[in-house]
């Protein structure tokens, strides 16, 4: 949270400086009051714009995968498949970490991806999970954006 506010503050400062250049060029002098007003407006505009966003050109831009996972193998998983067969295809998922809650009749949902944002960005990542019933058979696979 503090890092988010620090980046927002820095961006607002840069924007205020950029917006002050035309004022400086035409007036030859910018008052501190005008600079502070421009900064505050920039800061309040940037806070809602910095919320985590879905990047539609590449929804997987901020998604990291566990070792052994591949999208091709994930596509091969079918409802009713045993957990051991799934683990042969895509490896073991995270323990005690999930992005999807089990639905009625499901014992657990195992997560295979995590948030891995590029520097200075905050994009939604794709939560990739496999859900199982009491017999440890696949009930569904899930690929959904996660906003954290």
From TrEMBL:
Transmembrane helix in keyword set: yes
Residues spanning the membrane: 30-51
Keyword line: Membrane, Transmembrane, Transmembrane helix
UniProt name for this protein: Uncharacterized protein
């Amino acid at each position: 949270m503090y890092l988010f506010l620090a980046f927002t503050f820095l961006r607002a400062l840069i924007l205020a400086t950029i917006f002050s250049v035309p004022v400086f060029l035409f007036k030859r002098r910018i008052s501190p009051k005008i600079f502070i007003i421009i900064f505050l407006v920039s800061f309040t505009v940037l806070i809602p714009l910095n919320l985590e966003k879905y990047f539609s050109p590449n929804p997987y831009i901020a998604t990291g995968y566990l070792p052994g996972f591949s999208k091709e193998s994930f596509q091969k998983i079918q409802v009713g498949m045993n957990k051991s067969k799934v683990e042969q295809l895509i490896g073991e998922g995270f323990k005690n970490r999930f992005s999807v809650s089990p639905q009625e009749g499901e014992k657990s949902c195992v997560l295979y991806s995590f948030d891995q944002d590029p520097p200075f960005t905050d994009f939604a990542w794709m939560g990739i999970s496999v859900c199982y019933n009491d017999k440890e058979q696949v009930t569904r696979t899930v690929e959904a954006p996660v906003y954290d």
